[in-house]
Amino acid sequence: MGKYDAVKESRKEIFFNNIIGGIGWGLGATVGAAIILAIAGMVVARINTVPIIGGYVENIMEYIAEKQPQTKNYIESDRDRVDKKE
Q1: What is the rounded distance in angstroms from the CA atom of residue 9 to the CA atom of residue 39?
Q2: CA trace torsion 15, 17, 19, 23 (10° rounding)
């Protein structure tokens, strides 16, 4: 029990520290998963071997282009590059 005597935090402090740690872990896991899925989706769309997913990703990219006009030129040039490969 000697090593546990040094812990002088109240239950309230421990509870709030764990709540904040859990929220941080959850946000980090969500952002990390979103980044990995976005990269995977872009890779699959470029491979163009899975037309269903490729079309789905293309729809997402078009939606983004509509909402953020500054990305429209990039998406159109990328589409032209893919069309030239085929």
Answers
A1: 43
A2: -170
